[in-house]
């Protein structure tokens, strides 16, 4: 049984949200929601544009006496993450979401609630229907598919709207105003290997790092959490030098946007030093536990004789490239913001390493609120792996939203908040993606802030909305709308900002393309392929068979590179 949310305050927003709860709207399957919004617009005699991708843009005239105000965009995304408890029967493409009131919070019944971002859509609709709200000309932009690709924002056509002030209604903490977010891109690495007979008089061990917390690669990157891939690499890298360890397998991490919680490897150790090796791993475990005593109390490292003894290992060159690459590859916070205290500006996540047939597949993801820094850290990751003779590809990614502490709409919002609630709002940026990054990239100079009521457990069946904060969110939004200045007040500032931003945007775009186009010439490439082999030969005599295998690998690499170059890289932009 669902609770009646129509008795909650403010009526307008809950009435609209109640309507939205009945409309299925999984990401990439928003057709019913698009139809709902079209019907809503027709019923309320509001002009609208439906973009090809499904985005809906409503154009709303000013209320009486507010005609000379600047046009404001209210923006929210119409799709929702669809997660449910295992025992819950629910078809997200057909069934309505059932609201359940538990104390101060509104939940759904065993599913995500979709307050992210249904409450944002509801707020924008309620502004239109509530005769008490005073506002200038409005444009309500409802985007599709924020959650799995930001594709609605990506495809948004600047010709379909005119506003240059944007209120994004997709934040999760009442009392906080967001003025920036990170852009992101992924860097994908392939390290090729050949198989060779397993060494004689050796025993295969399974070495596992586990018990770590993991966490989101954006929000949690500054929490000093351990990365299982990194810890396992330390053991193997040093183990190679000390024990002549020979690697068969390495599997670590999982999702591209999660910090690796677990990693496991299988490697051969010569029989005459098995006990030493076991001691060594125990020692390393102690070191790690000491290093992460506060943040990772559950950290565990195990070395056990492998349940199955493989009859092959990866070739020595591949092991050299893989372990040096993983060890040298940066992970974690790269830079903190100089303008916003405690805000991570740039980071990179060494997300996962998976053994596939013939190569190791390594996923990394970079984030920064500054476009050039995002490219810089992605280049750094590429540079490391180039030294390890790997193939490296970058996804297109999505742009960040650089905080503008001089934003005019931010000034107005802070004043409104202080006046109504008698306290300062927190002005923040988040180290994850928001649609504002893409919109700001399309419309240089767009003056944007993002805010919303308090939500918790988003993207999980535990998603809930703190009921009292919806009233606060509503009052705050209405105050801002009422206080938007007249057209001429902001016009000068906006023109200047647009000019500066366009200049910046042109400067930034040219070199990015060039860097990818300028690949090392073939000769250089061939020399590069051989260089580490010499190093390795110096370290240890390497048979001609090995050199041949390295060359063979180089040929297959070249072939893969060519075929990969024909395809345009898949865009894997997602917010979380
Ligand atoms: Zn959202």
Summarize the topology.
Layout: H1 11-21, H2 31-43, E1 47-50, E2 56-60, E3 72-77, E4 99-102, E5 105-108, H3 115-129, E6 138-143, H4 151-155, E7 165-168, E8 176-181, E9 183-192, E10 195-197, E11 202-210, H5 228-243, E12 246-252, E13 263-270, H6 274-291, E14 300-305, E15 312-314, H7 316-328, E16 332-336, E17 344-355, E18 359-368, H8 371-387, E19 391-394, H9 408-421, E20 426-430, H10 435-442, E21 447-450, E22 455-456, E23 464-466, H11 467-482, H12 487-517, H13 522-539, H14 544-566
Parallel strand pairs: 3-6, 3-7, 7-21, 8-20
Antiparallel strand pairs: 1-2, 2-6, 4-5, 5-23, 9-18, 9-19, 10-15, 11-13, 11-14, 12-13, 16-17, 17-18, 22-23
Helix pairs in contact: 1-3, 5-6, 5-7, 9-11, 13-14
The chain binds zinc ion.
Zinc ion binds at residues 77, 116-117, 146, 170.
Descriptors:
binds zinc ion, elongated, 576 residues, disordered C terminus, 5-stranded antiparallel β-sheet
In whole angstroms, the N-to-C terminal distance is 32 Å
Number of helices: 14
Shape: elongated
The neighbouring-strand order within the major sheet is 1-2-6-3-7-21
Which small-molecule ligands are present, each listed once?
zinc ion
Account of the 3D structure:
- The chain has helices spanning 11-21, 31-43, 115-129, 151-155, 228-243, 274-291, 316-328, 371-387, 408-421, 435-442, 467-482, 487-517, 522-539, 544-566, and strands at residues 47-50, 56-60, 72-77, 99-102, 105-108, 138-143, 165-168, 176-181, 183-192, 195-197, 202-210, 246-252, 263-270, 300-305, 312-314, 332-336, 344-355, 359-368, 391-394, 426-430, 447-450, 455-456, 464-466.
- The chain is α+β, with helices and mostly antiparallel strands.
- The longest helix has 31 residues, at 487-517.
- The chain is elongated.
- Bound molecules: zinc ion.
- Residues 77, 116-117, 146, 170 line the site of zinc ion.
């Amino acid at each position: 049984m669902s609770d009646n949310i129509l008795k909650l305050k403010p009526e307008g927003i809950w009435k609209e949200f109640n309507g939205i709860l009945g409309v299925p709207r999984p990401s990439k399957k928003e057709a019913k929601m698009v139809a709902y919004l079209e019907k809503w617009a027709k019923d309320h005699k509001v002009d609208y544009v439906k973009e090809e991708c499904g985005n809906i843009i409503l154009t709303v005239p000013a209320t009486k006496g507010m005609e000379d105000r600047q046009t404001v965009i209210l923006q929210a995304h119409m799709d929702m993450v669809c997660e449910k408890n295992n025992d819950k029967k629910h078809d997200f493409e057909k069934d309505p979401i059932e609201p359940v009131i538990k104390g101060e919070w509104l939940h759904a019944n065993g599913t995500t609630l979709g307050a992210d971002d249904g409450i944002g859509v509801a707020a924008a609709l309620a502004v239109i229907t509530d005769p008490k709200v005073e506002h200038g000309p409005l444009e309500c932009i409802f985007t599709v598919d924020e959650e799995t690709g930001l594709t609605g924002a990506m495809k948004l056509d600047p010709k379909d709207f005119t506003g240059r002030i944007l209120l994004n209604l997709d934040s999760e903490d009442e009392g906080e105003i967001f003025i920036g977010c990170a852009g992101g891109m992924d860097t994908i690495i392939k390290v090729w290997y050949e198989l060779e007979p397993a060494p004689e008089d050796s025993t295969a061990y399974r070495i596992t790092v586990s018990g770590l917390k993991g966490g989101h690669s954006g929000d949690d990157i500054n929490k000093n959490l351990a990365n299982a891939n990194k810890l396992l690499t330390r053991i193997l890298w040093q183990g190679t030098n000390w024990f002549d360890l020979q690697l068969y397998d390495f599997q670590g991490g999982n999702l591209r946007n999660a910090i690796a919680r677990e990693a496991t490897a299988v490697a051969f150790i010569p029989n005459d030093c098995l006990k030493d090796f076991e001691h060594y791993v125990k020692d390393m475990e102690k070191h790690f536990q000491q290093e992460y005593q506060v943040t990772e109390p559950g950290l565990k490292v195990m070395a056990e004789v492998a349940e199955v003894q493989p009859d092959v290992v990866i070739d020595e060159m591949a092991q050299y490239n893989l372990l040096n690459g993983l060890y040298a590859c940066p992970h974690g916070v790269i830079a903190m913001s100089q303008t916003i205290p405690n805000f991570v500006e740039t980071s990179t996540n060494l997300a996962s390493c998976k053994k596939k047939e013939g190569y190791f597949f390594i996923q990394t993801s970079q984030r920064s609120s500054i476009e050039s820094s995002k490219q810089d850290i992605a280049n750094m990751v590429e540079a490391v792996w180039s030294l390890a003779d790997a193939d490296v590809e970058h996804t297109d990614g999505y742009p960040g939203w650089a905080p503008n502490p001089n934003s005019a709409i931010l000034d107005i919002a802070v004043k409104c908040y202080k006046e109504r609630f008698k306290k300062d709002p927190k002005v923040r940026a988040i180290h994850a993606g928001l649609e504002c990054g893409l919109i700001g990239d399309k419309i240089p100079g767009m003056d944007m802030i993002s805010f919303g009521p308090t939500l918790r457990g988003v993207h999980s069946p535990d998603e809930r909305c703190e009921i009292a904060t919806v009233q606060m969110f509503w009052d705050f939004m209405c105050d801002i709308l009422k206080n938007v200045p007249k057209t001429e007040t902001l016009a000068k500032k906006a023109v200047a900002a647009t000019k500066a931003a366009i200049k910046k945007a042109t400067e930034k775009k040219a070199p990015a393309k060039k860097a990818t186009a300028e690949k090392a010439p073939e000769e250089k490439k061939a020399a590069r392929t051989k260089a580490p082999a010499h190093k390795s030969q110096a370290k240890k005599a390497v048979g001609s068979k090995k050199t041949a295998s390295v060359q063979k690998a180089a040929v297959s690499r070249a072939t893969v590179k060519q075929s990969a170059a024909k395809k345009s890289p898949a865009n894997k932009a997602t917010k979380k």
